[in-house]
Amino acid sequence: MPRRSHQIKGFTLLELLMSMALFTVAAVSLAEALNLISLTVSESIDDAEVREQLRATMLEVSKDSSITAETRETNPDKRGLYFRIEIERLDLKNEEGQTLDNLFEVKVTAMRQQSRGRDEELDSAVTVANPNLL
After folding, report:
1. Hey, what's the torsion of the CAs at 12, 17, 19, 24, to 10 degrees?
2. How far apart, in Å, are the Cα atoms of 18 and each of 10, 14, 32, 52, 89?
3. In Å, what is the CA distance from 59 to each residue of 25, 30, 64?
4. Does position 1 have pLDDT exceeding 70, yes or no?
5. Is 123 within the bounds of a domain?
6. CA distance 55 to 121
7. Which end of the chain has fewer CB atoms surrounding its CB within 10 Å, N or C?
8. In a domain? residue 55
9. Does residue 114 fall inside a structural domain?
10. In this predicted model, what pLDDT tens digit does every residue of 18-44 receive, in sequence order?
11. What is the mean pLDDT of residues 87-100?
């Protein structure tokens, strides 16, 4: 008569511990990746908002009919974001040697106030403006 073995089928404790450890490593890695993606998207949205405000400020300053050479700063918003506006008169001549009047170089720099007293430069844009053309 054949002899039957009474072996119980299933996983050993060591196999279960190894699979749980592997699952934990994979879950933690996935959580860190999702957190990094979330932070990157958030920073990207903030950067886009700053660039849009920078463009709007540049457009507003460039279209001002009473533009004069000056340097000024806007008031900081609730996030500490403000803009430094530098306007310089350009002395340029055309090919015939005639002076081109009322040309201004406009530079707008987006700045953020830092808690340590040093301000951070975020982005800047430069254009040439002529108030007589607008």
Report:
1. 170
2. 15, 6, 21, 51, 72
3. 51, 44, 9
4. no
5. yes
6. 15
7. N
8. yes
9. yes
10. 999 999 999 999 999 999 999 899 888
11. 85
DSSP E strand stretches across the chain:
70-73, 81-89, 92-93, 99-100, 104-112, 120-129
Q: Comparing 4 with 20, which gets the higher pLDDT?
A: 20
Residue written as token pair 């849009």: 52
Per the structure, the complete domain to which residue 26 belongs is given by 13-129
pLDDT at 5 exceeding the cut of 70: no
Residue 134 pLDDT level (bands cut at 50, 70, 90):
low
Q: What span, in angstroms and rounded, lies between the C-alpha atoms of 14 and 45?
A: 47
Q: pLDDT-derived band of residue 4, with 50, 70 and 90 as boundaries?
A: low
The first and second tokens of residue 129, run together, are 């403006």
Let me know if residue 4 belongs to a domain.
Answer: no
Domain total of the chain = 1
